[in-house]
Amino acid sequence: MFSLERAGRWFLASGIQEASGGVARYYRIDRGANAPVSTEITGYACEAFLYLAGRTGQAEYRTAALRAGRFLTGCAWDARIGALPFEWPANGAALAYFFDCGIVSRALHALWREEPEPEFIDTARACAASMARDFRDGSCWHAVIDLPGKRPLPAEPRWSRQPGCYQLKAALAWLQAGDYAHYEAQRALALAGDASFLPGADEPGRVVDRLHAYLYYLEGLLPSLGDAECRNALASGIVRAAVAARQHRGVYERSDVYAQLLRIRLYADRLGVLPLDMAAAAEEAAAIPEFQMSSWDPRIDGCVAFGRAAGTLLPYANPVSTAFAIQACEMWSDYQAGRFQPDWRELI
């Protein structure tokens, strides 16, 4: 069984949130060291802390969320050039990612709803404005730019280094900032790119990595389910994603894919888009605890591993995987109890 208490304790006590308030991309178990602080992962962790505060009522999670938010507004956001570097401190040539800006903007919106301090909403809006302004390329948006020059980087084979339908989740930041036109433009691009995104590679690890990104796209559709095309895309996309995950089971698996699949299934069912496949949902719910690690070491105990290859857990204690697992398991529990209420703004 998945332990919310141990997962939450890992977030608070493992050192994955550093003294600055920023959160490392992951803890590398075999090397005994954190990866650099990531602005995107700090955004996800901020939302996770808020979610844990709501589920447990424990004030220490709200304190951790505020530390993460103040890091994003006071350290990470570069007001001089109006940009958000993807790592902090930026060592050498800095980069900014469209996707990261959206995740941070959404996190600061969530924090502002709980703690209405002007710095949170001001920086959230500034991040969203940077996405629209600095990444624009005609009718679409670049994935990555350099800083401080804000020149686009050439697309690379990795999904994160090229535009794609996955960018729709980041575009939710525009919707939350009241910028409907940019969200709708990105949604049209995402729908057009749906069919070509998967599998997108031959090697199982790369296919599953792209599957993780494809599920971001499905999450980005949630506010648009009044549109028949979006409803159909969500329903068919869930089936397609589940088939892809099943094909690679036992070869290469990501814990966040199971969590994302379970969450999106529950949303689609409750929003009347696709009846829940109970057997598949129960299988995904049962898979998630397999990735939660137990150890005498507080840097590891309670965390969720990034994934496994050929049945062996990979040595990455991952904040995003842990956050998604927490939320998926709690939503599954709520669904089974008949109390799950879908709100796309709450999706970490």
Give the gist of this structure.
The chain has twelve helices and 13 strands. With 348 residues, the protein is mainly alpha-helical. It has a single domain (4-346), classed as Glycosyltransferase (Alpha/alpha barrel).
Structural class, by secondary structure, is: mainly alpha
* Regions with little confidence, pLDDT below 50 for 5+ residues: none
Look at the structure and give the mean pLDDT: 95
Number of domains: 1
- CATH topology grouping: Glycosyltransferase
Order of helices and strands: HEEEEHHEEHHEEEHHHHEHHEEEH
**CATH class group:** Mainly Alpha
What distance separates the N and C termini? 21 Å
Looking at the overall shape, the CATH architecture is Alpha/alpha barrel
Which range does the strand content fall in?
Answer: 5-15%
Total count of strands:
13
Sum up the overall morphology in one term.
Answer: globular
Strand order of the largest sheet: 1-4-5
Question: What does this protein structure show overall?
Answer:
There is one protein chain. The protein is mainly alpha-helical and 348 residues long. It has one domain: Glycosyltransferase, CATH 1.50.10.10. Helix content is 54%, strand content 9%. The strands form five sheets. It has a three-stranded antiparallel sheet. The chain is globular, with a radius of gyration of 19 Å. The chain starts with a helix and ends in a 12-residue tail after the last helix. The model has no long low-confidence stretch (mean pLDDT 95).
